[in-house]
Amino acid sequence: MNLRRILPGLCAFALTLHAAADERITRIENGLREPVAVRGAPARTMRLLDRMRDLHVPGVSIAFIDHGRIAWTRAYGVADVDSGRPVTPATLFQVASISKSVAAVATVKSRIDLDADVSRRLPDSALTARHPVTVRALLSHTAGVSDEDLAGYPATAACPTLQQELARAEVKWEPGSRYAYSSLGYGVLQQVLADTTGRPFDALARDTVFAPLGMRDSLFASTLPAALAPRAAKGHALDGTPIAGGWHCYPEEAAAGLWSTAPDLARFAIALQDRRYAFLTRQQIDALLTPVRDDYGLGFELGHAGREPVFHHSGSNAGYKAQLWAYTRTGQGAVILTNGDYGATLIAELMRAIATEYGWEDWRPIERTAVPANTALFDRYTGSYAVSNVVLRVERRGDVLTLAGPPLGPEPVELIPAGDADFFMREKDATLHFDTDADGRVDTLTFVDGRPRPGRRIDPAQVSR
Prior knowledge:
- The chain is α+β, with helices and mostly antiparallel strands.
- The chain is built from 14 helices and 22 strands.
- The protein has helices spanning 3-29, 48-54, 98-109, 126-130, 135-139, 162-166, 183-197, 201-213, 253-256, 262-273, 282-289, 343-358, 378-381, 460-463; strands at residues 32-33, 36-38, 45-46, 59-66, 69-77, 93-94, 153-154, 219-220, 248-249, 258-260, 310-317, 320-327, 333-338, 366-368, 383-387, 390-397, 400-404, 413-417, 422-424, 431-436, 442-448, 452-458.
- An eight-stranded antiparallel β-barrel has the order 15-16-17-18-19-20-21-22. A five-stranded antiparallel sheet has the order 5-4-13-12-11, sandwiched between helices.
- Helix 1 (3-29) packs across helix 12 and helix 3 crosses helix 8.
- The protein is globular and about 70 Å long.
- The N and C termini lie far apart (81 Å).
C-alpha cells in the first residue's frame, strides 16, 4: 500500500466533508424560520445574528449530532454584555430543566429501586396512604407533588437549603393518577438519592454520568463556584440587561442546577442514542424512554410531530434557555444553549432551520390560510386587553393590525386576518378572536396559545399602574 498516494486523497476527502458542513451551517445561520407560515406565500427566513440582536439574546452555543457523533459545534455572541467576553463551545451555561434528564440517568445508574415507596419524604397525606409515592413517579411527574415554578434566588441574595425548599412540597393529587410537571418533585428525588446512596447528589452525578461520558465541563451546583465564573455565560433579562449577580441560585439541583456546555450535553445524548454503548443497558434505556403519562418518560419528553422516535428536554431558568433534541434511530440531534430570556424563541427558530437543512419531520412551520383584510373593522379592535397575567396591546398601522405583549417578543407583530374577527401571527403558534356584541362593540377577546385565554378590554391608564 502506497501511503504517499492514499494520504492526499484522504485529506482531500476530509476537506470536502468540512466544506460541505460549512455550507450547511451557513444555510442554517441564514435560514431561521418562524413557527407559522402563510399558505401560498414565499417562506420568510431570518439571520441568526439579526435575531440575537432583535431578541436581546447575547450568546448562543450549538452542538450538532450526526450518525451518533458530534458533527460540528458553533458559538456566537458574548457571554456577558458588560465584558464582551465571546461565547465558545467550552462556555458554561445554566441548562435549567435539562438537569432532570441527567438526574434521571444518574438515578437509573445508581441502581436504586425505582418502585420504592418514598412517601415518608413528603408531608403525611391521605392520598399517599392509599397510593404511595415512588421514585419512578417522581421521575415521571406522576407523583402528584405540587408543581410550583422555580424562580430561583438572585446570586446576590442568600440561597435557601434544599431542606428549606422542600418544606413547600406537598402531594396535591393522587399519585399515579395524572401527569403534573413538578420541579419540587425532582427536589424530593435529589434528597432521596442522597439519603439512599449516602452520597451528595453532585458527587453521585459526577461518578455515574459525567466521568464515564467524559463530560469534563459539567457539574451540578445550586450556584456556580467562583473559580468557574470566568468560564460561564451570565444570564440576561428580556431587555438584554445582565441578571444581578449573573445568575440565580437553585437549591433543587436535580431539577434546575446543572451547568454544562453544548458539546458535553451532546455526549450525553449520544450515550442514549447508541444501544450498543456500554454506558446503559437496553433495559435502562427502555425504562428512561418509555412514556409513563402524557409522552413523558423518566426525565425525558418524548412527544413530537414526526415519525422518527426522539427524546428531548427544554430548559428555562432566569436568564437562560436551552434545548436538547436527539433521535434514537438516526443518530442525529442538536443541543442549543442561550443566555437570554427570549432564548426560547430563538432556539425554536434555529431548530426549524436545522430541521429544514437536515430533512427532519419535526420543527416544521405550521401553515395557516390568510384572507383579505376587512380594514373597516380594525378600529373597533384596537386597545389594551388583560389576558391572564399580562396585557396585550392591539394597534392599527395603516391597513395592518399589530399585537404587542410579553408572550410575543420585544417588538409588535403583525396580525394576519383569517376572518373578519379572527387573526393569527407568523411569530407564534397562536390565534386571536375578537368578540363583537350586538352594538358592534368589542370588549373581550380570546387569545389561544396552547389553550384558550380570555381577555377583557381595559382602560389604557390601567396599563401603566
